[in-house]
Write the structure tokens for this entry.
Amino acid sequence: MQAIEFEATIDGSGDIHVPERYHRLYGRNARFVILLPDVPRSDSKTIDPMQYNNRVDWPVDGLDYQRQARGEWK
């Protein structure tokens, strides 16, 4: 089996056009393996982590907690 590699665009009707330089292949049977580039899916949800900014109810003030923890080290 002979392998030939080229890139082509699949047109709106689903046709793939073999480049002219491979004219000797026209009319022959071939086996195709189509490799598509990895593209993020448009229907996938993107999460914005900043939407959760300042959403945690902390039982103490952060600065007071930090001072207390540092005071224990002394």
Summary: Residues 23 and 70 are 78 Å apart (CA to CA). The two ends are 77 Å apart (CA to CA). The chain has a mean pLDDT of 83. The chain has one helix and no strands.
